[in-house]
Amino acid sequence: MPMSNKYASRSKISEAKFRQLVKLFAIDLDASQIAAVTGLNRNTVGTLVTGESKFARACADDCQDRLTKVIFKHIDYIILSYILFTRLRIC
């Protein structure tokens, strides 16, 4: 029976190895370090963590979304602080 992986379709990597790869990617290891720890081929890991895969694109999109939310949150805080400061200064 072929191995099924709910994280990466048509992948020959087990779900456990893929989860381990994601954890190592999240702590900012590069492809060669991840390959050394997981025992996977460096080219396989490189393909998964670079922009050529859906995984890498999804990580980049998520990072961009989080960054945008943080920026707008801080902009709102700065605007609110400025408004409160100017009102207090006028009174």
The secondary-structure element order is HHHH
* Average pLDDT reading: 75
Proportion of residues in helical segments: over 70%
Can you tell me the overall shape?
elongated
Biggest sheet record: none
Task: Report the β-strand fraction as a percent range.
Answer: under 5%
Number of helices: 4
Tell me the distance between the termini.
Answer: 76 Å
Stretches where pLDDT falls below 50 for ≥5 residues?
A: none
| Rg | 21 Å
The counted number of beta strands is 0
Indicate how many domains the architecture comprises: 2
Helix and strand content put the structural class at mainly alpha
Q: Nutshell version of this structure?
A:
The protein has 91 residues and is an all-alpha fold. Helices cover 71% and strands 0% of the residues.
